[in-house]
Amino acid sequence: MPGPLQFAIWFLGTLLEVAVVVCAVKKNLFRRYFFLNLYMLLSAAISAGRFRVLMTDGVDSTVYRYFYFYSDALLTITLFFALISLFGYVFQEMHVEKYVRMGAVLLLGGTAWFTYAVVNQSQARFVTHFVFELSQNLYFVGLVLTYVLWGAILKLRETRALLVQLVLSLGVYFSAYAASYAISNLRPNLFNYVSFLVPIIGCLLPLAWAYAFWRVPDDSRLVPARLTMVPR
After folding, report:
1. How confident is the model over 4-58, as pLDDT tens digits?
2. Which long-range contacts (CB under 8 A, 24 or more apart) does 42-47 make?
3. How many domains is the chain built from?
4. pTM given for the model
5. Which residue in 89, 103, 169, 226 is a FRET match for 159, CA 20 to 30 A apart?
6. Triad 97, 103, 105: Cα angle to 5°
7. In a domain, 213, yes or no
8. Is 3 a member of any domain?
9. Which range marks the domain in which residue 195 is found?
10. Is there a domain that residue 12 lies in?
């Protein structure tokens, strides 16, 4: 059972997720960044659901484990589409949104097929193992796509401050989670420390997005010199 500090961090993360949506609504950005807000709404709702299951069935129960892994897969897929929506904004002037969406569906399907092919060779419970591996693989794909998106921002000299802030914070979030996965796999003896840091990492993204929606005007632009110069 999590301790008081872990519960406090969990509660703080849920409040920050709700704050993102509130800030987006206040600044009339909810529809524009729909998938980002949908992810935060789902995350807050699932957090409440996990707390309820935890209190009724316990952290070691089968019900909690199934609820955790399936809800985590749902959140990961939603975050994947939130990332793809940012691709659409970056390439908006090139009018390639249809191809971006098509590529996202193909990439998601390819990741699911690859996960199925790997898990199918395992003797573990197929469905649970598949959901867990799919979440991990999508996190890795999300990390790579975020850096690709940042490269596109630099190449296209994107100056919309809010969009840059959202992408940068997503890159930090994915990088932190990837580092935690790597440390857990390479140094299993540090698993307890990493598992304590994961909820703190989970607070970073909603904190950054809430700040961006509240403090960064949608029409503000960065000075081009503040972005890394990329030769054409």
Report:
1. 888 899 899 999 999 999 999 999 999 999 999 999 999 999 999 999 999 998 8
2. 42/74, 42/75, 42/78, 43/14, 43/17, 43/75, 43/206, 44/14, 44/17, 44/18, 46/71, 46/74, 46/75, 47/10, 47/13, 47/14, 47/17
3. 1
4. 0.86
5. 103
6. 105
7. yes
8. no
9. 8-217
10. yes
